[in-house]
Amino acid sequence: MAPRMAAVGNPTRMVGKLELGLGMGPGEAVAEVEELRRRNSDLELEAAEAQAREKEARRELERTRERLRVVEEAEERLTTELGELEAEAVAQARAYRLRIKALSDQLAIAHEILTSTGFHCKLVALNRPNNY
């Protein structure tokens, strides 16, 4: 048996083709087709709204990605600066330690000279604050 073609635009003929309205009168079948069209329209509207929400979500995701990229670049710059500052602090600490050592050596030499000339003093007394 050859398939039957339904006429486009004729809801009553399409009902039979869609296997809708079996056991219904022509008015009920038309009403069901209209209900399906309304439901289809509602679904198309929901799909369009979902696409709009998805599009907005994608834009928000892109904005978030851009902010993340900027934050990561800032983190890299700060890490680099922190590394440079740390290296500078280490260099200053070494220089300070060398200066302290040099001054301690000078003080030891001065103390030896004073001791060898017969001048005896306690270094602790030199470090006391003046209480005058």
TrEMBL record:
The keyword Coiled coil applies. The keyword Coiled coil applies. One of its GO terms (biological process) is cellular oxidant detoxification. Residues 31-88 form a coiled coil. Keywords: Coiled coil. This is Protein RESPONSE TO LOW SULFUR 3-like. The gene is LOC105054047.
